[in-house]
Amino acid sequence: MRTFDLTPLYRSTVGFDRLFSLLDQTAGVENGVPGYPPYNIERTGENAYRITMAVAGFSDKELSIESRQNALTVKGEKKVEEGQNAEVLYRGIAGRSFERRFQLADHVEVRGASLENGLLHVDLVREIPEAMKPRQIAIANANTAGKQIEQQAA
């Protein structure tokens, strides 16, 4: 799929920033880098999910996870060490900062996160409130209902 540069439209419009941001996200472009870092979304149970992101080279101190309303944001910011004077001949391991956003469905909560072997696992659970769950309604017999009303009146 081709990507479209919407930058000229930003300069000539007012109030459509959110619309253009949504178009960029739909096209798969986030922070100018499509698809970084790669991730999987798995279903681990009836109401349990797991997002797994490949964040090789990042420590737990360089990653942050924020859950706000129906959005989950994972940020990685690589800290540059001043004492590192090694000359890199080829850079194949990405060390750039990133921000990945996920839209969460209603009643989905983040249960925890773990970093293991360069993979960040974020566990999610969908908990529907008791008031919103389907419930069974007993059907009363017409003859029985009339007798109960008469007994209460007497």
Automatic annotation (TrEMBL):
CDD domains: ACD_IbpA-B_like
InterPro entries named in the record: A-crystallin/Hsp20_dom, ACD_IbpA/B, HSP20-like_chaperone
Signal peptide: none
Record-annotated SHSP domain positions: 30-142
Pfam families cross-referenced by the UniProt entry: HSP20
Entry keyword annotation includes Amino-acid biosynthesis: no
Coiled coil location: none
PROSITE patterns: SHSP (PS01031)
Keyword Disulfide bond: no
Key words of the record: Stress response
Family (UniProt): Belongs to the small heat shock protein (HSP20) family.
PANTHER family given in the database record: PTHR47062, SMALL HEAT SHOCK PROTEIN IBPA
Name of the featured protein: Molecular chaperone IbpA
